[in-house]
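User: Fold this; tokens only.

Assistant: Input:
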Amino acid sequence: MRAYASHLAGPRTIRRQNCAPAPFVSTSCTTRPPSTVVLLTAPRKNFLAYFARHVGKICTRRMILENVWGASYSKELQYLKVYAYRIRRKLHDEDGHFLENDPSVGYRLVVADN
């Protein structure tokens, strides 16, 4: 499966890395072994890409829904809960250290301090 997963490396894949600022943002760090390829669906990739553009800032639920899924989804709060849960599980961040939840506002992508 590893050979197959590396063959698929492209715009839909994200590498889990042991470096800062974020596992899927590779502009400020290099991948060090052991790294794992994480395959993402297009909506999950768009969900994470939105947070990557707003690193460290709290994004309201409405902002996220409208920018990732469109204006007609602005009240579909269950989408966020499901996607946040699945992304956290995929990146082994069940405790929410990477993708923080502010219960009264929305979510924030947290930058690790070195």
